[in-house]
Amino acid sequence: MExxxxxxxxxxxxxKFWREMLPRIKYRxxxxxxxxxxxxxxxxxxxxxxxxxxxxxxxxxxxxSTSTSTSTSASSSPSVPDTAxxxxxxxxxxxxxxxxxxxxxxxxxxxxLQPTEEEVRELAEMAEFKARSExxxxxxxxxxxxxxKEQELLRLARGEVGGTQ
Length: 165
What we know:
Structural class: mainly alpha
Number of helices: 3
Helix content: 40-55%
Strand order of the largest sheet: 1-2
Shape: elongated
Largest sheet: 2 strands, parallel
Radius of gyration: 26 Å
Number of domains: 2
Strand content: 5-15%
Distance between the termini: 59 Å
């Protein structure tokens, strides 16, 4: 994968894909080799190169992009795994990160993994925790506002004028 270091010139989707989606892909596919080439030219290319293993091999591995190697030259080419030419080249300039993921999935015939029972349980616990924390946040805020109002009333009852000293 190659793109600009900054989001200028239509590289926002590529950058967000690199930061948010590639770590998850790499976590679930540790054997996939991923290389990132970042350049500093906003007019430079934003491409996703997908390399697949030879048809003789039974498993198809995609070496799209993830390692943290960075390059500052605009003319550098991505690291080449087994073949000289990528199996697929996707232009990702001005493309949203979810569309980049969709193109990667469609071109590699990837399968979406369903969460395990443990992961479903953890997600439910996290959702429950978030709901409880939001309710607690509201209660604490109301208590804080009530205390602040009581302090203001006491200050007025004592005859203090104005704000804080």
